[in-house]
Each structure stands twice: as structure tokens, then as C-alpha cells.
Design brief:
heterodimer, A: alpha+beta, four-stranded antiparallel beta sheet, B: alpha/beta, five-stranded parallel beta sheet, 11 strands
């Protein structure tokens, strides 16, 4: 009977692992969905940053610094959503979108994050919420980079600065 | 001073009229549950790794460093899954106790200890190497980078605690510690596993918010810690308060053997089966810090309960001075050394020295099943035939015989019998002619009990026919 237990254990484990291995053959879809979820979670309440936008990251549709202000500046203070430039790093492209209200940074959404190598997704998922919080607190792109996520941080802050420059 | 069960005269079991208990289907259910437990251990560990594969973990491997990192993550996932299984195995879950018995569950727990430590050490080493290669740092630099993160500091602390726990549990090291010290260190594993949780959830992003993996892991943590908190701590405390055991009297059976008579409330609700044990804590100045795993040496009668103990350990010697009215807490009853493990029509009982106590309760709790009952007690001299009168009477009531094998051990051969019995050609087969169709219950010191079990296996008994209860002599 012990044999039955061990055989059952070995075969069930093998089946689970082989099944998972073969199913993970379509990782891109899973990966994009995961990135979208994460981005969506880290930016609650930002109406303009739909997961769909970030999900299509890397498609190049928003390449360049094309501003998409949804409302105009009033009394000299900018309001609206501005998309930063695409900053390319050795680990992939980084692009963020900033939401301003009367010149105040109310939200930062990552449209693309470093994703070129295995750990990059993990690092950027870990670093993005920290950077966003620091930016919201400092109200500028002059914040410390996250240790262990230097490339992501620099790309993130550069793209953010570009977006802020557009807003004037 | 003795108003115990012995003086009152204990009653013989009621003659039950249901001889044909269906051992087979009960056995099949039990073995199925036991095998299911093993399969779940394997499958859940594979499942933990599979969740990582499914989330695209492997497809992101583009370099050697990535591969090392992925292996490190897999080692961590498998190791942590097994650690949580270890917590569950030690959590005194009633389902598991009924399926395999608490001692077997703890045996599995022990066997997992070293592999788990290796997996966790591999996890730490591989991830340090993998991260270092990716970041272009050396191992020291990467470790420093890790230590700049609060969650990672906690993880290193968890690793240190885990090392302490496993090292103190190695057989050679464990002997050097008193049980209580070892146990306190061992309880740190609950802290260790919990300290590792923050870095699992925050670092690396494998269990990032919103992933299925995060839900799986949090559920597994809740299950393991919930089971331990309830079955190991809350439930024993509540039962101790409900039954409110007090010492009634201490009865001396031999210079180093005492029976402790206890009185408690609502004993019927405990569901004690003869042969089971509980872990006892006597709230007196000398004894409160020490817990004693002791078998019931009789079934409950009314509101009275009896346990019998030999003053072998440093703590048990102090029990003789227990006063009437001393409060007693307990955990239990535990164990499958009872009628619940029956699988055959005949009953063969073998005990050595104080090992007769669970057999005594088991005899009282066994019903006439149409089969034969026989008992063999091993003692180096007559003074060690504890509870002999009771054992003898119970065996006769079952229509069986109680044998005593008294005399020094055989020096020439490694036998569990006396030298005299070996010379006369006594064996399991000669004492129990129907041994192949019997349940064999063995209780005695570890090495001695193993010898009996070996002879039984050589005769062709199945594993599920052999029931072992060991104690350290």
C-alpha cells in the first residue's frame, strides 16, 4: 500500500509538472496579462490608465512623445494626462503617463516597463509602485532610484520628466 | 490515601454482542486516507512549482543567470511548500491521527526536515548567484544589496532560525539537549516560517499582488498556521478547561512505578480508545514546566481515569510527590495503537516492562470478536511484571492466555526474548499460533520493539497488522 502512495505521488507530481510545462508554452499572453493586472493594481483610481493601454505595451502605438491632454490648462496650471517619451534601456522600453490636476501630480501610470530578461518583470513590478509613491510625495521626477532596479528607475523618471516637460 | 480504581475494583468490559466488526472496509478506508495524505504532499509541492511554470517563469530564461535564478525560485517554492506540510504533519490534525497515527505523522515530519533545509539553502545560494550574475555584482555585493531591503533582512533571520531548528533536531545533537530546551527551539520554526513570508510576497514578484500564486500561498499559510493554532494550542486548552482534571491519588506499584488517578468531568466526550495516550502537564511547582506523554492504563470509569508511569526520565521521578487536587492539563487523546487499527480477527499483544500499560487499556477496550487473544509480557525479573493481575484477568475474560517471559536477556543472540526462552525455542509463532491472522500490538523500548516487529515481518505479517508503540528506555 505504501507503494501505491509513492507511485501515486510520483505520477501525480509528474503529470502536474509536465502539464504546467507544456501549457507554459504560450507565456507571452500570460505575461502581458500579468503585467496589466499589476499595473492596474498599482494605480487605483486612475481612470485614464486602462489596463488595455498598458496591456498593449511595446506595440509602439504611443511611440514618441505624443501628448494627449484630455483637458486644457487653466490659470497657468496644467491639468490632464500626459504621456512621456519611450526610454529604451538594455532591459526593455520604459514609458509612463502622468496625470496632473492644477499642476499637481495626482497619478503616474506605467505604460511599459522593463521586460527583456527573466528578472526584469519581477524587478519592475517591485519597483514601479515604490517609484510612483515617491513621485507623488515629492511632486517631481527628482527622486532616488530604487536600489536593485536602477535601469527601471532611470527609464521611469526620464519618461516622467518628459511628460512633465510637455505639461509645461 | 488510595481511593483509586484498583481499590474500588475496576469492572470488566461489557460483553459486546457485535463480533463481526468489518475490519476490512475500515482498513481500506484508513489506508486510502494514508496514501491520499502522501499523494497530497507530492502533488501540492509539484503544484507550487507548476504555478510558477504557468505564470511564464521558465519562458523568461534568456541566460545562464536567469536559469540559476529560476532554479533558486523553484527550490524556494518546493522547500516552503514542504515546510508548510511539515507544520501540518505536526499539527495533531484528528483526520491524520485516525489515518496513520500521530507517531507516523511525526515520523514523516522528521524525514522531511533535512531535504527541506537543503532546498531552502539551495534557494538562498542559487538566488544570490543568479541575481549577482544579472546585476554584475559579486556574491558579497549582492548579499549587501539584499540586506538593504527590510523583508530580506527578515528572510535571512528566518534562515538562521531554520538552521538552528534543524541542527538541534539532528539525532546526535538532540541528545545533548534536555527535551524542554529542544522543544522551545523547535517552536521557533513557527516564527521562522512566518518571518520568511514578507520577502515571498514582496521580493522578486513571483507572488506579486493579483497572481494566482499569491492566493495559493496565502491560503496554504492560513491552513498550516490555523491548524497548528487550533489543534495544538487552542483545542487542548479548551479541553483541559472543560474536563478540569485533578489528581485524586498516587498509587505506588513498584519502587519506581506509580499509577496516577485523575478525576475529571464529562470523560465520555473525550472518546478515549484503549491504547491511546495523552500529553500531560501537572500544575505543581516541581512539574508544571514538563509535559509527559503517557498512555492511559485503564479505560475511564465514571469520572475516574488512570495513567501509570515509571520514573525513568528526570521529570517523571518528581510525579510521585503529586498532591491531591493538583490541576492537570492535557493534549490528546492521540494515537492509532487502539482497536481502531484492527485488521484481523485475532489479537496478539507483546509488551515489555512498563510497556504493558497501553496493552492493559487496549484489552479492556477490545470486544469479543470470535478470535483468539493472547498476551506475552517480557520482564527481566518478577518485580517488573506491572499490572500483572489485571492483565491476567482481562486475558482470561477474553478466553485467552497471558504469558510472562521473565529472566535476563539473551546475551549470545539479539533476541527480544529472555535467554531461557531462546534456549527453549520460544518464538512469536509458538506463543501465538495464529499470528498470521492476528493484529500484533507491540509496546516497549524502541530497539526491543523493533526486534519483535522484524520477527513478525519475517513470518509474513503485513505492515498494517503490526502496531508499534515505542518509548525511550
Amino acid at each position: 500500500m505504501r507503494t501505491r502512495a509513492v507511485l501515486g505521488g510520483v505520477f501525480s507530481s509528474a503529470a502536474i509538472l509536465i502539464g504546467a510545462w507544456s501549457l507554459s508554452g504560450a507565456p507571452k499572453a500570460v505575461h502581458v496579462a500579468a503585467a496589466a493586472t499589476t499595473t492596474g493594481t498599482t494605480t487605483p483610481g486612475s481612470g485614464t490608465a486602462s489596463s488595455g493601454t498598458s496591456g498593449s505595451a511595446g506595440s509602439g502605438s504611443t511611440g514618441g512623445a505624443s501628448p494627449a491632454p484630455s483637458s486644457t490648462a487653466s490659470a497657468g496650471k496644467a491639468s490632464g494626462t500626459y504621456t512621456g517619451s519611450v526610454v529604451s534601456t538594455q532591459y526593455g522600453n520604459v514609458q509612463v503617463q502622468v496625470t496632473l490636476s492644477q499642476g499637481k501630480i495626482t497619478d503616474v501610470t506605467a505604460l511599459q516597463l522593463t521586460d527583456r530578461e527573466g528578472r526584469s518583470v519581477q524587478i519592475s513590478n517591485y519597483a514601479a509602485p515604490i517609484l510612483r509613491q515617491e513621485v507623488l510625495t515629492a511632486q517631481s521626477a527628482s527622486v532616488d532610484t530604487v536600489s536593485g532596479a536602477t535601469y527601471t528607475s532611470e527609464g521611469y523618471l526620464t519618461s516622467l520628466q518628459a511628460a512633465l516637460d510637455q505639461a509645461g | 490515601m488510595n481511593t483509586g480504581i484498583a481499590e474500588r475494583g475496576w469492572s470488566l468490559p461489557e460483553a459486546a454482542s457485535a463480533p463481526s466488526e468489518d475490519y476490512r472496509s475500515a482498513l481500506r478506508r484508513r489506508l486510502f486516507a494514508a496514501d491520499l495524505a502522501v499523494v497530497l504532499c507530492w502533488a501540492s509541492t509539484a503544484g507550487a512549482v507548476a504555478l510558477y511554470l504557468l505564470s511564464g517563469g521558465v519562458s523568461q530564461i534568456h541566460s545562464k543567470a536567469d536559469a540559476v535564478t529560476a532554479l533558486g525560485i523553484i527550490a524556494g517554492l518546493a522547500g516552503t511548500n514542504l515546510i508548510l506540510i511539515m507544520l501540518l504533519l505536526a499539527a495533531r490534525i484528528p483526520w491524520l491521527d485516525r489515518a496513520v497515527g500521530q507517531d507516523v505523522a511525526i515520523g514523516w515530519h522528521r524525514r522531511l526536515g533535512k531535504p527541506v533545509l537543503y532546498l531552502i539553502l539551495a534557494h538562498a545560494a542559487l538566488l544570490t548567484l543568479g541575481y549577482a550574475a544579472t546585476d554584475g555584482l559579486d556574491v558579497v555585493g549582492e548579499t549587501a544589496a539584499f540586506l538593504s531591503n527590510r523583508d530580506m533582512i527578515l528572510a535571512y533571520l528566518a534562515l538562521a532560525l531554520l538552521l538552528a531548528v534543524v541542527v538541534t533536531s539532528l539525532v546526535a545533537v538532540r541528545r545533548k539537549f534536555p527535551y524542554e530546551a529542544w522543544h522551545l527551539i523547535h517552536l521557533l520554526s513557527y516564527a521562522a516560517v512566518l518571518l520568511a513570508l514578507p520577502h515571498e510576497l514582496s521580493y522578486g514578484g513571483v507572488l506579486a499582488a493579483g497572481t494566482v500564486e499569491r492566493i495559493y500561498w496565502i491560503a496554504l499559510y492560513l491552513l498550516a498556521y490555523g491548524a497548528a493554532a487550533w489543534y495544538r494550542f487552542a483545542k487542548p486548552l479548551l479541553l483541559s478547561l472543560r474536563h478540569d482534571f485533578r489528581v485524586v491519588s498516587v498509587e505506588r506499584l513498584a519502587p519506581d512505578v506509580i499509577s496516577i488517578h485523575l478525576r475529571g468531568r464529562e470523560l465520555g466526550r473525550l472518546g478515549i480508545a484503549g491504547g491511546q495516550y495523552a500529553t500531560w502537564r501537572f500544575w505543581s511547582a516541581r512539574n508544571w514546566w514538563h509535559s509527559h506523554p503517557l498512555s492511559f492504563s485503564a479505560m475511564p470509569h465514571g469520572d475516574l481515569l488512570r495513567i501509570t508511569v515509571r520514573g525513568a526520565g528526570s521529570g517523571t521521578a518528581g510525579l510521585a510527590g503529586l498532591r491531591r487536587g493538583t490541576r492537570v492539563w492535557f493534549e490528546g487523546p492521540y494515537g492509532l495503537f487502539s482497536r481502531h487499527a484492527r485488521s484481523a480477527p485475532n489479537l496478539a499483544l507483546v509488551g515489555a516492562g512498563i510497556g504493558v500499560t497501553p496493552l492493559r487499556a487496549l484489552l479492556e477496550d477490545s470486544r469479543h470478536s470470535g478470535g483468539e487473544t493472547a498476551l506475552l509480557v517480557r520482564a527481566s525479573d518478577e518485580s517488573q511484571l506491572y499490572l500483572w493481575e489485571e492483565l491476567h484477568t482481562l486475558c482470561e475474560w477474553h478466553g485467552g492466555t497471558a504469558f510472562a517471559d521473565v529472566g535476563p536477556r539473551s546475551r549470545a543472540t539479539s533476541s527480544w526474548l529472555s535467554a531461557d526462552a531462546v534456549r527453549r525455542g520460544v518464538s512469536l509463532q509458538s506463543v501465538f499460533p495464529r499470528i498470521l491472522h492476528s493484529d500484533l500490538y507491540i509496546c516497549g523500548p524502541g530497539p526491543w520493539a523493533e526486534l519483535v516487529a522484524q520477527e513478525a515481518k519475517a513470518l509474513g505479517l503485513e505492515d498494517h497488522q503490526i502496531h508499534l508503540e515505542r518509548f525511550d528506555s
